[in-house]
Amino acid sequence: MGRADLPRRYAAGPDESQGDLPDVNVWLALTVQQHPHHDAAQAYWHGEAAQRLWFCRVTMLGLVRLLTQPKLMGPDALDALTVLAAYDRFVGLPEVGLYSEPLGCDTELRRLTAAGLPARWMTDAYLAAFATSANLRLVSFDSDFVRFAGLQLLRLEPVSALP
C-alpha cells in the first residue's frame, strides 16, 4: 500500500447501477505496492472500476487476515489495529463502502452449491452469491469464479512487466 498512502481512483468507471465487489485478492493488491498484481489492481482502480466499490464482511476480514499474516507478509506483517485503520481509510473514500449482506444471499448460495462443491470453493461461492444477490459485479484475479452461472464477473489479468 505504500503503507502510508492508499491508492486513489481519479477516473470514474463504467456506469453501473450497483457497483463492484472486489475479491480480497484485489483489495490486497491495491494495498501492497510490492504485490505482483499491484499494477493491474491500480489499472482497474483508475480505469475499469465502477462508480462504487464495496467490501463485504468476508472481504474485509480476509484483508485483515492476510495483512496480519507473517507467512504472507514476512517482516511487513501488520497488527490488526493498523490494518483496520487502513480499511477505515478505504471505506472513508466516497466511492468505497461496506455492503451489508443482501436479501436472497442464502438462497443464492444454496443454488450455487446445490450440485456439490469442494469445501475450498465455499468462500468463492459465498462471494458469488453475495454479488449476484446485490446486483454487483465481482472483480477478481481468480479464474475459479467463471464456474458460477449468472455471476457478473470482471476477471483481472496481471500487467506484464515485459512488452
Provide a descriptive summary of the structure in words:
- The structure is a single chain.
- The protein is mainly alpha-helical and 163 residues long.
- It has one domain (20-154): Rossmann fold (3-Layer(aba) Sandwich), CATH 3.40.50.
- It is 42% helix and 10% strand.
- The protein has seven helices and five strands.
- The chain has helices at residues 24-31, 38-48, 57-67, 70-73, 80-92, 105-113, 122-134, and strands at 20-22, 53-55, 96-98, 137-140, 153-155.
- The strands form two sheets. Strands 1-4-5 form a three-stranded parallel sheet. The chain has a two-stranded parallel ribbon with strand order 2-3.
- The longest helix is centred in the middle third of the chain and has 13 residues, at 80-92.
- The protein is globular, with a radius of gyration of 15 Å.
- The two termini are 25 Å apart.
Give the key terms:
Rossmann fold; single chain; 3-stranded parallel beta sheet; two-stranded parallel sheet; mainly alpha; 10% strand; 163 residues
